[in-house]
Amino acid sequence: MANQFEIAELPYVTRRHFLEIANSGSQWDFNRQLDPEAIRSLPNDENCVYPVVMALIHQHRRMVRCEDHIRLLVQTPQSLEICDVPMDYAESLPLSIRVQVNGKLIVALLLDESGKPLSLRYRSMTRMVRKAIQHLAKKNHRIKAFVTSQLSGAAA
Predict the structure, then answer these.
(1) Residue 113 CA neighbour count, 13 Å, CB half
(2) Sign of the C-alpha dihedral, residues 105, 111, 112, 114?
(3) Which end of the chain lies in a sparser environment, N or C, as judged by fewer CB atoms within 10 Å?
(4) For residue 113, is it within any domain?
(5) What is the pLDDT of residues 31-71, one digit of tens each?
(6) In 3D, which of 24, 34, 89, 30 has the Cα closest to residue 65?
(7) Do 57 and 99 have their domain in common?
(8) Do the beta carbons of residue 76 and residue 42 sit within 8 Å?
């Protein structure tokens, strides 16, 4: 039976993004805003990333129709944060590319806002993981050189 590869691109935020959203909330003036004090409890570490679900396109500000914006759901260790952000801000969030083989997550690659690879994470360099990473490189040529450089230092 052939292995089933699935590749998903999922947005994420860091503490810096949370602070940007909280500090811009009053300017954007959408219904759901973040409290900057609640964010201060998050680790001040850019390696801590929090997955984002773009829940819905929202079109109202205090029951009055307004420009389209997106409601984000962000899971932190302490809570589920909900906030509204402009469409262009949501579309600029960095991505995490995840590879699943036969339904099992085995590789995660973080990209920054410009699409440049930041880090490659995997449990151990098994033959299955190597195949998944090579499959990822075939599907996304923008990260092929980065993936190849990561593999060159890994044991077979």
Answers:
(1) 10
(2) negative
(3) N
(4) yes
(5) 999 877 778 788 887 778 888 888 999 999 989 999 999 99
(6) 30
(7) no
(8) yes
